[in-house]
Amino acid sequence: MLEKEIISWFKKNKRDLPWRKTDTWGVLVSEFMLQQTPVIRVLPVYTEWMKRWPTPAKLAKATPAEVITAWGRLGYPRRALRLHECAKVITNEYKGVIPRDEAELRKLPGIGEYTAAAMVAFAFGGRSLVLDINIRRVFARIFDGVETPKLAATKDEKSRYEELIPKKDPHLWAAATMELGALICTSQSPKCGICPVANDCTWRSLDYPKSDVVKRTQTWHGTDRQCRGTVVQALRENETLTKAQIAQLWDIPSQLEKAIITLLDDGLIESRGKNKFSLPRN
Question: Is 237 a catalytic residue?
Answer without folding.
Answer: no
